[in-house]
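Can't attach files on this board, so I'm pasting raw text. These are the components:
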Amino acid sequence: MTAPPPASVLRLADHKFFEGMIGGLPERLQAVATERAYSVGDMLVREGDVADRFILVFEGKVALEIVLPDRPRVTIQTLGGGEVLGWSWLLPPPQWWLDARAVKRTRTLEINAAKLRATLDSHPEDGYRFLLHLFPVVAQRLDHTRLQLMDLHGR
Amino acid sequence: MAASSIPLPASEPLGASPWIPVPFRVEERASETADTITITLTPPKGIPSRPFRPGQFNMLYAFGVGEAAISIAGDPDRPETLVHTIRSAGPVSAALSGAAPGSTVGVRGPYGTGWPLASASGKDVVLVAGGLGLPPLRPALYEMLRHRDRYGRIEVIYGARTPKDLVYYRQIQEWRGRSDLRFQTTVDAAGREWYGDVGLVTARVPDLRIDPSHTVAFLCGPEIMMKFTAQALAAKGVPDGSIYVSLERNMKCGVGLCGHCQLGPDFVCRDGPVFRYQDVRRFLSVREL
Amino acid sequence: MSDSIAVGGRYVLERAEFPRFLLALHEAGFRVVGPTVRDGAIVYGEIREESDLPIGWTDRQAAGQYRLERRADSALFGYNVGPHSWKKYLFPAGERLWTAVRKDGSFEVHPEPVDPTPLAFLGVRACELAAMGVSDHVFAKAGDPSYAERRRRVVRIAVQCGQSGGTCFCVSMGTGPAVRTGHDLSLTEVIEANRHFFLVEIGSDAGAALLSGVPLRVAPEGDANAARAQVDRAAASMGRTMDTDGLRDLLVNNPEHPRWEIVARRCLSCTNCTMACPTCFCQTTEEVPDLSGEEVERRRRWDSCYNSGFSAVHGTSIRATTQSRYRQWLTHKLATWHDQFGESGCVGCGRCITWCPVGIDLTEETAAIRIQPAPAPVPA
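---
Top answer:
Structure tokens for the assembled complex are below.
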């Protein structure tokens, strides 16, 4: 499934998610981050699996899909470079509630969720800064979901 | 009858009545989506063509049914034909959608203001279209691509409900193949056949490759989509005064007389449909204005 | 003596000679329209002879009220304004714009000709001259051909108000009661203990020409003064006042004022104010096909911003509530009209107050907003 990582090394500090974060957190987390590359069609996560990592997309495109028993699979959002794959890993029970599939060759850095949570727990200041960066992602997804609910283009 | 002895004001030559539709011939009719078509019209013999500015609209008339305001979607450099993309939504647009080649559609216009292309000269340009917001922007895109050297980067973001709702599908593939233009499409939801982006047009704004302070943006689509897009552009640093929107109201006469399309001090048909966003934002934020 | 009559001149027409004046209008080929009593109101209609005029009648007006009453004298023009305005002649409540017929797979459009008969408007008040000026600007800006065609066939014989009505506020709007401009002729009806005459002022060459063969004499100073006193009396007894100072900004800056909700509890959204208003111009068109579908006519008729479908886009009304419609009407009339046409859309005739079935009074509404306006918007 997972292709061998390419030669160049991705750095957490270069990802948009950590942009402007003070306190050196991305540098410290770099050690527990794993670089991965996905080919078109590869699954990054599957619904129901344990959400065991925080995934930062550096390049490529990832489709978030929902599967309903009586309907064709639906892509509800795509993520590209500079975006992160959600927050399921942070909330108990840590479980993915949708599928994520690469629709372009995709490179990521993925941080082990247990280690990440431990770091944030033991350094509450870092934890707070981290959440300040994560919260806008959640808020924006909520805003977008509301707009999508209005089905504006359908009118 | 001696009225002639009374010096009433002399008859002044009046311009052509604004109320008379001119019968144009339907040359072509192409299907865009399940409910949307594009028709190409030519004027009757001896009647001059209708030059238009990108962003303007015509009142199209279906004989015996009525009129609807439809934006002009063709190339302003080819005014000998009028191109209109029409979604079948009511009796008039349904009748217009059914106009077969060889049949006749009445035309009044063109009306309204256009996209301020002159103000975009020398700058990066962002076009954001939602749904049927692409047709009113297409003439501007034609114009900019014809005079490509006048502009910096050109970015287009086009959002639709699903991949099946995208109009000008083939042309979009051509545009996407150009190196002097970035054309992104995004849909609200898609099946596995779609390899493009899924999400709102606003989500694409942060990635725009532009110099925000030297950027002009033209937005056309549902009002709420334009509102959020304008917010996203402002967050990226595009000045408020450089964002333009095309508004939709109940346009009936086209010349600022029937009163239906008023928004605050503006007749959208005459003072718009293209407005500078900062000039109309305060009116758009008042409920039921 | 009519040969020497010139613009700016002042003459006396004795009451007894009024039929001669009317006759002169008819003989000049005019269809004369003016005030006449019908259905318990003074409306505008055909004036064939003097007895068609509301001789000895006056109108008593208040918010939501209109009554005809007998006067103590037999004045010809002793009332103010009724439910009609002259707009019905220039911009009819319903008219055909054109007809179209199918032809050779296409269609052919035939514009509707305008009745060429010249019209004499007899009894135009100062506020109504102002209203016609406002309408002229609106229709000219849109290039409406039938309004322009009708308008140029009209002579306007103004009659100054000798009294003011209970809902009048032309002084506030700067439109009256004195007739100053826009008239071809201006009459002031003066009734003294044993004399009844008209002071006639000439406003245009067309007006002067109307007086051909009419027995007049140059007005002595005393008669001119008596006429002026009439108008002064009307000016001093306005039924209403409206503070127009900064009114445009006041309304534009108060779209969320609680008063809109309060007035909407009474407003029936009945459209009466817009129908009675001499400047309301909103209109709609409809397509009327014949049974065969071979021929169709385009009709236009008055529309109103109080109608639910007025603002509808894709079948959904943007102004779904009465509150938003009343706000649209009043804000347009008194505020955004300035942006659109460089003047107020209100001339202070008071019709909207009188003919409102629940007596909503725009002077009261604007005053209520003025008492406690929203704070000025913070500049961006």
